[in-house]
């Protein structure tokens, strides 16, 4: 077989129908969309929502008490769960999200919730390409600076 001019003549190559092959179709131009389907997992949408919510000033953490305790263990071993406190429902063209947050004390809770709603909806629309029909924000707790300090060096009230 002359490599420069002859096509392969193996039985397998002769039995492949050219029209049915996914890879032997004529190439589309750069401006022509390519056929195919994109499927985006719920976990991807949840991660996008979780990252967006954490970017809002006034959000201390995501998730309820138990989730945050488990999250602290994950953080300690560098395995942070960016979907903690986030539930999403994803359809073919739309998404809905439920976000549970802890707000820093002193931050206006309604404003923080509104900013979380806007940031999450914007990120899902921009990065994932889905229409966001609903973002519910559940404010689970208020973080008070100093609550994290379990320092026993405080003065004792009794002797």
| Average pLDDT level | 80
Structural shape = elongated
> Which parts are unreliable, with pLDDT below 50 for 5 consecutive residues or more?
none
Oligomeric grouping of the chains? single chain
How would you sum up the major sheet?
4 strands, mixed
The gyration radius over C-alpha positions equals: 26 Å
Give the H and E element order. HHEHEEHE
Q: CATH topology of the domain at 42-143, anyone? A: Alpha-Beta Plaits
Strand fraction: 15-25%
Count of distinct strands:
4
Please state the second-level CATH architecture of the domain at 42-143: 2-Layer Sandwich
N-to-C CA distance: 99 Å
Can you describe this structure?
By secondary structure, this protein is of the alpha+beta class. It has a domain at 42-143: Cation efflux protein, cytoplasmic domain (Alpha-Beta Plaits). Helices cover 31% and strands 21% of the residues. It has helices at residues 11-14, 42-54, 65-76, 109-128, and strands at residues 59-62, 86-90, 94-104, 131-143. Strands 1, 2, 3 and 4 form a four-stranded mixed β-sheet that branches. Helix 4 (109-128) links the parallel strand 3 (94-104) and strand 4.
